[in-house]
What we know:
Blueprint: H1 14-19, E1 28-32, E2 38-42, H2 45-48, H3 50-64, E3 67-72, E4 76-80, H4 84-87, H5 94-101, E5 106-107, E6 125-134, E7 137-146, H6 155-173
Amino acid sequence: MTQADDLGRVVIPKEIRRTLRIREGDPLEIFTQSDGEVIFKKYSPIGELGPYTKQYVDVLSRTSGMTVAICDRDRVVAVAGMPKKDVVGKRISPMLESYMEKRSPFILGTNKDELVISDEIPTGRIAVMNPIIGGGDVMGAVALISDSKSTAPSQTDIKLTQVAAGFLSKQMEE
């Protein structure tokens, strides 16, 4: 049980924050039910761009010939090139989260790391990933997923993810 303080603040227990990956400064949505229930939900700016992300992954997948995924800071929100039910909603891998937090792009073959979109998806090896940065904060990432372990992405593939990340960042600012 938790209580509101004199300013109306409520402490979310550490175990819940850790389980839900709620970090200091993360935006939360608050909903109330008619029976008095209060529901806290992590807010995902990338998730709010639903129609844009779905259209963008479709176009990017057709253009690149690769599987494309867009994720927020926690989960995959859109994918094209593989069955959506197998990927959308899956938690991103800790290593992907680390690259995003460092604001670092990932390009297969430029270092010894092997990056996967999610530990739950065995075929989700990332060829190139660029973080989506909006308002100075990391919001998510755009990734091209390769079928092959060793195929390095082309310069065009790298530019496509940069453009996609920049476009989605701009959409969140508007």
